[in-house]
Amino acid sequence: MIELTRLNGSRLSINCDLIKYADSAPDTVLTLVTGEKLVVLEPRSEVMRKTTEYRASVLRSAWPDAENALAAKRGRDLQILAAESEKSTS
């Protein structure tokens, strides 16, 4: 869940997986998958940043070794590209 601020200053926590889309008109209006609309003080870019950070934290919790696994995969992908490049220049 992410924490946002209503126009009246009160704080609310929202399940960001329920956000269907966010508009800036000029206030930030969140439309939920239920059809409910929420107006918040934070700009749309801040809502997006908080959502991304929240989802990243969920993934880090679920797969704590992801960084090491992804680094190893990137290294292997680079080896494959180098080998393919060598073949094409030979």
Describe, in short, the structure shown.
With 90 residues, the chain is of the alpha+beta class. It has helices at residues 44-62, 66-89, and strands at 2-5, 11-14, 19-24, 28-32, 37-40.
- What is the averaged pLDDT score? 92
| Low-pLDDT residue spans | none
Give the % helix. Answer: 40-55%
**Number of beta strands:** 5
Q: Structural class from helices and strands?
A: alpha+beta
Walk me through the structure.
With 90 residues, the chain is an alpha+beta fold. It has one domain (2-64): Beta Barrel (OB fold (Dihydrolipoamide Acetyltransferase, E2P)), CATH 2.40.50. It is 48% helix and 26% strand. The protein has 2 helices and 5 strands. It has helices spanning 44-62, 66-89, and strands at residues 2-5, 11-14, 19-24, 28-32, 37-40. The chain has a 3-stranded antiparallel β-sheet, with no helix packed on it. A two-stranded antiparallel ribbon has the order 1-2. The longest helix is centred in the C-terminal third of the chain and has 24 residues, at 66-89. The protein is elongated, with a radius of gyration of 21 Å.
How are the SSEs ordered, and which strands pair?
Elements: E1 2-5, E2 11-14, E3 19-24, E4 28-32, E5 37-40, H1 44-62, H2 66-89
Antiparallel strand pairs: 1-2, 3-4, 4-5
